[in-house]
Amino acid sequence: MAEVARPAGAGVAVRVPAGVRARAAVNTALWRLFLGFTFLALFGPLVILLLFSFNDSNILAFPLEGFTLNWYSVAWQDTLLRESLVNSTVVAFIVAPVCLVLGTLTGFGLTRFRFHGRGLIGGLVGAPLILPWEVIGIAALMAYGRMHIELNLRTVIATQTICTFPLVTAIVSAQLFRFERVQEEAAIDLGCSRLQVLRHIIMPHIASALAASAIFAFTWSFNNFEISFFTIGFQQTFPIWVYSSVRNPDHTAVVNAVSVVISAVQVVMIYAALKLLRRGGAASALGIPSEEEL
Amino acid sequence: MAAVATPVRRTRRTGRGIFGIMFAPVTLLIVLFLAPMLIMVQMSVVRFPPNVASGYVLEHYRTVLTDPINLKIWWTTLYIGSTAMAIMLAIAMPLAYYMVFKAGKWELFILLALVLADELAPVVKIYAWQSILGREGILNWLIPGSPIAWLLFSRFAVIVTLASTYITYTTIPIYAAMKAIDFSMIEAAVDLGAGWWTQARKILIPLAAPGIFIAMILVYIPMLTDFVTADIVGGTGSYMMGQRVRDLILSGGDWGSGAALNFVMLVVSVVASVFAYWLARLNKIDR
Fold it and tell me: Is A71-293 in CATH node 1.10.3720.10?
């Protein structure tokens, strides 16, 4: 595949009749412009936050005024912010493992067993992924209110869990679908117990998908705004803190600083998750082809 | 198969196994997801919710569907959503085309960047647009003359921000659909002298149509209920349905209308998703 190494557009240009090389060059330039614009729209806002987090002024105004690390130390000392970060972290550290267990069980059940009502249960598991979080959040708010259950971090955890574990199911199922059932049956015929099959055949195969789904569940939970917004009491999670802070002009610089740190951590986590997924091929759950498919 | 030797034992074990596996997740879904949905539906038909003893009426649905304020908000929401959708399709289709047919080794990089952009700190990303579109933001700084006021806290701001938020979900289904197109078809069209517009109109768009529809449905559903974007970058002219439902319930305390409106949204989402699923099945792109 020599063509792949050539710059974009060249592969097509070769086949076009001679004399249109200039047009091909314009073509390539237009594509680059388009891609540049798209990436600017995707990541430009975050780059600008990064710039402003070092800016020696509290307002989001150009031109920049000078370099400072002050906002990072202000952010570090903000107790409300620290509380919200702790809350989000606690919630995510509970939601992610619980979702990992529930999602994996469901993935096994739906891909490895044939039983009555399988389609119905599949629909029930998929529903939280399809319905908007606002709809789910409001329904949960009403249900908790009706049952006189006090809203706090526990209600956030409960509702986030049922909205997040189907994502794990989707990823794990995608991995299990790719796995030859014959291998499991061979192991059983050779005298392996169910547990041994799980330990030596299935686990190594889905380990990377599990790790990746744990990371995705964690970031989903940490970043979740809508569900937390409707099911939380007087505490704040990090996205809720951001939401209420951006309406307060005194806070903008602090939001910038802390957002930069959080985004940096998440870039690393999500990158690792995507790497893991591609190794196993379960990325198809997110629409991403595996290594051998490309 | 081993099952042939001891069929009875095997089925029984499987039966118990599946019960053990699915018990916890299904119970949780019923208690924490299905039951709240039913309670919401109940609230939408109770005369004075949450007081169930006040009797059942369909009044709230009538109010929700005929109130001129709601109709105006539906219109605003559809206008904002559809404009954002048009922008996203205008970006997503060439982007998907580029990824499939031209990007080569960069294909994966672009894909990962799209996923990353989607997963990264959602509320923060919306808020970041303030620094671009604001009176003293980067755009007004770059554009000479007096600052343009309508860039931020306006419909325009909501449309731009929504488009940048949901571009990942628009691109990936179209990308998946285009991935299935045989490149030799496009080569044949080029050899026969078709220009880019003819190629797009006669080959790409018809063959990617299911992916385009799925993308539209996937993105319309969350966009119609989005209230964070309009809260942070919107103004008085961009009051959307998501905000309306939230305000009815949290500020107005009107559970009846709120629940009815929420249920309308639920039905729309379910119908749209079933349609998308059917399209995906039809075209075998739900891998």
Answer: yes
Centre a 10 Å sphere on the Cβ of residue A110 and count the other Cβ atoms it contains. 23
Superfamily of domain B67-283: MetI-like (1.10.3720.10)
Contacts of B32 in chain A (CB under 8 A): 140, 158-159, 161-162
Q: Do A189 and B141 touch (CB under 8 A)?
A: no
CA A287 to chain B, closest CA, distance in angstroms equals 6
Chain B hits for A267, Cβ within 8 Å: 116, 120
The model carries a pTM of 0.84
Question: Do A60 and B136 count as a contact with CB atoms less than 8 A apart?
Answer: yes
**Which residues are A55's β-sheet partners?**
A67
> How many Cα atoms within 13 Å fall on the side-chain side of residue B261?
29
Domain ranges in chain A are 3-53, 71-293
Element (H, E) at A11: helix A10-13
Helices and strands of chain B, counted as H and E runs: 14, 2
In tens digits, chain A (294 residues) has pLDDT values of 334 444 444 444 455 565 667 888 888 899 999 999 999 988 888 888 888 888 887 776 777 777 888 888 888 888 889 999 999 999 999 999 999 999 999 998 888 888 888 889 999 999 999 899 999 999 999 999 989 999 999 999 999 999 999 999 998 888 887 776 777 788 888 888 878 887 888 887 788 888 888 888 999 999 999 999 999 988 999 999 999 888 776 777 888 888 888 888 888 888 888 888 777 666 665 655 555 444
Whole-complex ipTM:
0.86
